[in-house]
Design goal:
The protein is mostly helical. The protein contains four helices and no strands. It has one domain. Helix 1 packs across helix 3. The radius of gyration is 14 Å and the shape is flat. The two termini are 15 Å apart. It is found in: Cell membrane. One of its GO terms (molecular function) is transmembrane transporter activity. Belongs to the drug/metabolite transporter (DMT) superfamily. Small multidrug resistance (SMR) (TC 2.A.7.1) family. Gdx/SugE subfamily. This is Guanidinium exporter.
Length: 104
């Protein structure tokens, strides 16, 4: 169950990063509220998962899911560039996440 909580925490991290972008520096109330609520939920799930998962593994996977998901969302929804160097960098992050999971 901690791995499911960690996955949900990572997905919520993607959502709060996106809503933070949409909040225009916390000047729009709707996206700002979504950012704050999803941040709290993401941190709470991460904290719960860390009760039984190693700190380094949990935190690295949480940030990796957030980084990878935000990267994909930026390309697919916000029209950010998908250069070969950026794709290689995200590939290294995904590889690190998989290796951490296999090592744990």
């Amino acid at each position: 169950m901690p791995w499911v909580a960690l996955l949900l925490a990572g997905l919520l991290e993607v959502l709060w990063a996106y809503s933070m972008k949409k909040s225009q520096g916390f000047t729009l109330p709707g996206p700002s509220l979504v950012t704050l609520v999803t941040m709290i939920a993401s941190f709470a799930l991460l904290a719960w998962a860390m009760r039984s998962l190693p700190l380094g593994t949990a935190y690295a996977i949480w940030t990796g899911i957030g980084a990878t998901g935000s990267f994909a969302l930026g390309i697919l929804v916000l029209g950010e560039p998908a250069s070969p160097a950026r794709l290689a960098a995200i590939g290294l992050i995904v590889g690190g996440i998989v290796l951490l999971r296999l090592a744990g």
